[in-house]
Write a structure and sequence with these properties.
By secondary structure, this protein is of the alpha/beta class. It is 45% helix and 10% strand. The strands form 3 sheets. It has an 8-stranded parallel β-barrel with strand order 3-4-5-6-8-10-11-12, surrounded by 5 helices. Homotetramer.
Length: 435
């Protein structure tokens, strides 16, 4: 039985680039084969439960602008209605996956026992809906940043009772993710950081965070969860100093606590920008270390220093992102989660569909451009030419030599290198041929 929320809207289909239907795919054809794999299998799109259904349209200066039938989100009845609407949207989009935080799918209870009870109840309800749906769970996670109990962090909190509450919460969320067949479990340290060092023991907090993540990995193996554990880097927001600042910081943290073979990264375009990086940089850093797991696709407003979580619309940026994803072998358990939300003034149900349709089309164009660049090989040829000198035996020998020997060779051979062009403009022009 329909909720009526999306009344008047039809299932979104691929109509091709010449279509003028604003609610049709013009570039995303799930069955189109790209580099030997269906586009749907490459992109593995997921709808974010929190932005699409739990966010009420508020900002720091004003409250909700969305008036949804499941507001207020404080009862199981409304939680189930929200799930009904969510699966109607998944069906309209033919979305392969969705993602959630526990606080998105259940109401906030008076204590942990109530939270766990409602989480288990809604997990069963969602599980029943999944039986008649083609949409699967890409990943689950715990919201350990919104409630006031998390104001000083979760695993890094100076209060051991908060650490205990966080551990119990994550166990419940991992159990729910496992029960629903989730393909990953994500930990986002929304407040794992500090506001001032005047009241912070950084070393102790990092050790606690490392131990917490180790317990998560141990529990994964205990329950036989076959999915990937992921951590998500994010700088500055909301804490002044986040311990999970960027990909390189997270990789160093994972290596310090011996978790580099157990945990990979879930990287977000908007977070990369807040860290002062490009998305392709973060992807390349993770890929170089074999830790690229999944991505959150969105964009930031470049005139704002905030994480605005807008739907992607920049094909060149997206193409370079997927170029690095494809070079790394593509997604296995990971995918493309739209961690993107409507603008506060986009209040109609149709806007939810339009935002995802546009984002999926942009990603499809980016994927095809990335694949075309890889198949053409121009960027790889340019890299090979630039680093060709390192293929010579004398260059390779330097890497196992010492400073004395290298200096002697420079003197004996009269080595006096001349700078060579990096040809950046030519390579940028090359990329623009494909996008």
């Amino acid at each position: 039985m329909s909720t009526g929320f999306f009344d008047g809207l039809s299932k979104v289909t691929y109509e091709g680039a010449d279509s003028d239907n604003p609610l049709a795919f013009r570039h995303y054809n799930p069955d189109e084969v790209v580099m030997g794999k269906r586009m749907e299998e490459h992109l593995r799109f997921a709808v974010a439960y929190w932005h699409s259904f739990a966010w009420e349209g508020g900002d720091p200066f004003g409250g909700l602008t969305f008036e949804r039938p499941w507001h207020p989100q404080d009862s199981m009845q409304n939680a189930k209605l929200k799930a009904d609407v969510a699966f109607e949207m998944f069906d309209l989009l033919n979305a392969p996956y969705f993602c959630w935080h526990d606080a998105d799918i259940r109401p906030e209870g008076a204590d942990f026992a109530e939270n766990l009870s409602t989480l288990e109840e809604i997990t069963d309800y969602i599980g029943e809906k999944m039986q008649s749906s083609s949409t699967k769970l890409l990943w689950g996670t715990a919201n350990m940043f919104s409630h006031r109990r998390w104001m000083a962090g979760a695993s890094t909190n100076p209060d051991p009772d908060v650490f205990a509450f966080a551990a119990a919460t994550v166990k419940g969320c991992m159990d729910a993710t496992h029960k629903l067949g989730g393909e990953n479990y994500v930990l986002w340290g929304g407040r794992e950081g500090y506001e001032t060092l005047l009241n912070t023991d950084m070393g102790q907090e990092l050790d606690h965070m490392g131990r917490f993540l180790s317990m998560v990995v141990d529990y994964k193996h205990k329950i036989g969860f076959k999915g990937q554990i992921l951590v998500e880097p994010k700088p500055q927001e909301p804490s002044k100093h986040q311990y999970d600042f960027d990909a390189a910081t997270c990789i160093g943290f994972l290596r310090k606590y011996g978790l580099e073979n157990e945990v990979k990264l879930n990287l977000e375009q908007g977070h990369a920008i807040l860290a002062g990086h490009s998305f392709e940089h973060e992807l390349a850093v993770a890929a170089a270390e074999g830790m690229l797991g999944s991505i959150d696709m969105n964009r930031n407003d470049y005139q704002s220093g905030w994480d605005t979580d807008q739907f992607p619309n920049n094909v060149p940026e997206v193409a370079l992102a997927y170029y690095h994803v494809l070079k790394a072998g593509g997604f296995t358990t990971g995918g493309t989660n739209f961690d993107a939300k409507l603008r506060r003034q986009s209040i109609d149900p149709e806007d939810l569909i339009a935002g995802h349709v546009g984002g999926m089309d942009v990603c499809a164009r980016g994927l095809k451009a990335a694949a075309a660049m890889i198949e053409d090989g121009g960027l790889e040829d340019a890299l090979k030419e630039r680093y060709a000198g390192w293929e010579k035996p004398e260059a390779q020998a330097m890497l196992t030599s010492d400073l004395d020997s290298i200096q002697a060779r420079v003197l004996s051979e009269g080595i006096n290198p001349k700078p060579r062009s990096g040809r950046q403009e030519r390579l940028e022009n090359y990329v623009n041929r494909f996008v």
